TrEMBL record:
Gene3D superfamilies xrefs: Cytochrome c oxidase subunit VIIc
Associated pathway: Energy metabolism; oxidative phosphorylation
PANTHER family: CYTOCHROME C OXIDASE SUBUNIT 7C, MITOCHONDRIAL, CYTOCHROME C OXIDASE SUBUNIT VIIC
Protein name: Cytochrome c oxidase subunit 8, mitochondrial
Transmembrane segments annotated in the record for this chain: 97-117
Organism: Exophiala spinifera
Family of the protein in this entry: Belongs to the cytochrome c oxidase VIIc family.
Subcellular location: Mitochondrion inner membrane
Pfam family, one: COX7C
Length: 119
């Protein structure tokens, strides 16, 4: 077709005088064709069978847990705030926290301003 270029399986792009118009062509089903093909029904049946077999396999597996080893030479601290690399219970924690947050949020903006005025 002159002036047309195929963009995908159902769309054609028509270019005329620098303007690009997108015409979508819909494939209409006739009344003789099936709206729900047998291949889709077969595919759904296979996926349902596969899902049922997977759940049966999971139910058959014997899950077990290992009991904790209390004879281990390593003891890690437990409880709240034990995994943090800082102590939030100190007197000036709030000052360090807000300084870090302000610097982390403000540095990109300050860099952008500096680069804008530098150019």
């Amino acid at each position: 077709m002159p002036g047309y270029a195929k963009a995908s399986s159902c769309c054609y792009i028509y270019e005329r005088s620098g303007l690009t118009l997108l015409f979508t062509i819909f494939k209409l089903f006739s009344t003789t064709k099936q709206l729900f093909p047998r291949s889709i029904a077969k595919m759904n049946a296979q996926s349902l069978l596969r899902a049922r077999m997977a759940t049966q396999t999971i139910a058959r597996r014997g899950f077990s847990t290992t009991r904790p080893r209390f004879d281990s030479p390593f003891h890690y601290p437990e409880g709240p705030r034990s995994g943090l690399p800082f102590n939030p219970k100190t007197k000036f924690f709030w000052l360090r926290y807000w300084t870090f947050m302000t610097a982390g949020f403000g540095v990109p903006f300050l860099m952008a301003i500096w680069h804008t005025y530098k150019a």
